[in-house]
Known about the structure:
By secondary structure, this protein is mostly helical. The chain has four helices and no strands.
Amino acid sequence: LFKRIINDNQMEGLADKSLKSLWKVISKNIQFLPGENDDDFKNIMRGLTSVVDGIECIRTKFGSAHGRKAQSSNIEHRHARLANLAAHTVAGVVLETLDANNQSKEE
């Protein structure tokens, strides 16, 4: 999703293709915050950044990306659900914000 948004919107500054790097480009190029001095929303954005970092760590440690065999772990369904819902929340916020930004540009 992040790669597609970056490419479709011709965003620059991608250092590598890690999730953390993709998030950095997205968060710098999309206006998430309603105002510049809104500390409450800045705290939430820091939380989203922590979610992205956590998902990247879980994917790297336990995932089977790039043809690797997934590590055995004691991850339970509830852990997978937490990671999935957190990723869904981040993706939803990005898509809704991008849509709102595009609508405001059209007005």
